[in-house]
Design brief:
- This protein has twelve helices and 14 strands.
- By secondary structure, it is α+β, with helices and mostly antiparallel strands.
- The strands form four sheets. The protein has a five-stranded mixed β-sheet with strand order 1-7-6-4-5, sandwiched between helices. Strands 8, 9, 12, 13 and 14 form a five-stranded mixed β-sheet that branches. A two-stranded antiparallel sheet has the order 2-3.
- The radius of gyration is 20 Å and the shape is globular.
- The mean pLDDT is about 90.
């Protein structure tokens, strides 16, 4: 009987800009301090002793923490010449180093993003060149916040089909370049960063377990990014976050649980076999809600949005890198990890990996 061929995760890497912006600093950006309704937010605070005595910046900080779970986010400074492509190249090189590989040993490159500095050339070509392998083939994936998991699925497919032996999957976004600093609902959420994983052909019981799962559900209003050629003169701020209310939170929890269940069924497993669940992190209410819905013990669902914000598809990639480097506690050998994600559009994807 032939051994099962799959894709093993042999190395991960990430890059975070060194500039961290806390809620107090964010409050002073754009027109947030003028447009933020301090008294309405103060009245909405729960469990804060002495809330009536808090200053406007302190109210904003407490409101941001309660509504989103975010206290800080990483940012490429406005005066910096660092691009999304630069962050992706650094994350990719870190993953290659962890895997013990050189750029010219990779057969394909998939890059997930919604914020390339250039639409053309293809971002994968730019990133490959920055990593030192300009002949490397690949393409860019736009599945919003689910892009990295879609990339893992594409990499698995390329390896299982025989198209490639080794695939590098990278996700990166510089969302702070796109946020609307007049809209507190948008500005409070997003951060910058990149993450990567090397997938290699393997046989046995490690690697991606079963085909990854994906699905979609059209919905434009919650989050959309107008295309360059279709933007009106008054569309100067491209990210418009229209709705972050309870309906969106419930839908995100339900859909990430559903697509995660599909990936587990394809792997022949159930939730009890999972050591870590790494969800996309758009809001702490979503990841905490997912933890409660799945009734998983504390620590099984990984949370890190507090210090990074929502980094689109990079959130899952960076968190995977942190988990495998032991930043979220001991990692059993072997460890079964479920990646699950939902992105604007909507796009959903999940994958089960064993490392």
């Amino acid at each position: 009987m032939a051994a099962r061929v799959t894709a093993a995760v042999t190395g991960t890497g990430s890059y975070l800009p060194p500039d961290a912006v806390n809620n107090f600093q964010l409050f002073e950006m754009g027109t947030l301090c003028a447009s933020f309704d301090v008294e309405q937010a103060r009245s909405a605070l729960r469990g804060i002793e002495g809330a009536n005595g808090l200053s406007a910046p302190e109210v904003f900080d407490q409101w941001a923490r309660q509504v989103t779970g975010i206290r800080s986010r990483r940012r490429i400074p406005p005066e910096s010449d660092v691009t999304t492509e630069d962050m992706c190249a650094r994350a990719g090189l870190a993953a290659l180093e962890a895997a013990g590989r050189e750029p010219d040993e990779i057969d394909l490159l998939y890059v997930a993003t919604v914020s390339p500095s250039d639409e053309v050339p293809n971002m994968a070509c730019t990133v490959a060149t920055k990593m030192g392998n300009p002949q490397l083939g690949g393409f860019t994936i736009n599945a919003a916040c689910a892009g990295f998991v879609y990339g893992v699925g594409a990499g698995w497919s390329a390896i299982v089909s025989g198209m490639a032996e080794r695939v590098l999957v990278i996700s990166g976004d510089a969302l702070t370049r796109l946020v609307n600093y007049t809209d507190v609902r948008t500005a409070v959420l997003f951060g910058d960063g990149a993450g990567a994983a090397v997938l290699e052909r393997c046989e046995g019981d490690r690697g991606v377990l079963g085909p990854p799962a994906s699905s979609g559900e059209f919905a434009r209003d919650p989050l959309y990014l107008a295309g360059q050629g279709w933007r009106r003169d008054d569309d100067r701020i491209p990210i418009l976050h229209m709705d972050g209310g309870p309906r969106i939170v419930r839908n995100a929890i339900m859909k990430m649980a559903e697509v995660g269940e599909q990936a587990l069924e394809r792997a022949g497993l159930d939730w009890s076999a999972v050591d870590f669940v790494i969800p996309h992190q758009a809001n702490m209410r979503i990841t905490r809600g997912l933890e409660q819905k799945l009734e998983l013990p504390n620590g099984r669902v990984v949370h890190n949005i507090a210090d990074y914000g929502n980094m689109s598809a990079s959130t899952v990639a960076i968190t995977l890198d942190e988990v495998l480097r032991g930043k979220h506690g001991p990692v059993p050998d072997p460890a079964t990890i479920l990646l699950t994600s939902i992105g604007g559009g909507y796009t959903m994807a999940a994958a089960v990996i064993r490392v």
